[in-house]
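Convert to structure. Protein one:
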Amino acid sequence: MASSEWYRDNLLISTNPSLIQPAAVNAAFDSDMMHWVKAIDETLLKKMLDNSLCFGVYELPSSSSDIAGRAGPRQIGLARIVTD
């Protein structure tokens, strides 16, 4: 399936799986804001994400100097769609 992208202000919403940052997802899982879940093995997390339709939310840099040294935009959110 082809990925889709939407832009608004300094945000990108994308279904491109290559942009998903498992370490950022695990960090969110292990934070107090998601008290109902804990970080999981990254191999299992990757498998879970690969088998779901995911919408990643990314903060776009405000200037070109913010891009230096980054592999991609900073992930700040994730929605995962699961169905039977």
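Protein two, convert as well:
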Amino acid sequence: MRWHEQENELEVYAAVANTTEREVSFEASVVMLKTETREAAGVESTPLETDDRNGKTPFRLAPHNETVFHRSFKTNRPLTQAMLTKGVGIQIASSGKSYLIPISYGEVEAASSPNP
């Protein structure tokens, strides 16, 4: 996950792997876990509708395969490292069960200073 200061944009990447021996079907959402992050992004949760394989929801994964999701959010104020650390998660729902997994890694990409 990366917040781009110059564009006021939060970029979230999440990989989901199927480690089972059978195909799975699931839905996924990005969830803002901290109040400050929710307020800055202007959303609490948003469904993921496509993945890197051009799959659509509900997503299907064959045994021992993975997929990557990418979602960007415009922010209405600066984000800090503390806001990013476990401040955003991915929620996976399948077969009546739901799992919320915090994304532990996040970085702030500061705006470049103009050359003097």
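Residues 21 and 37 are 37 Å apart (CA to CA). Helices lie at 35-41, 81-84.
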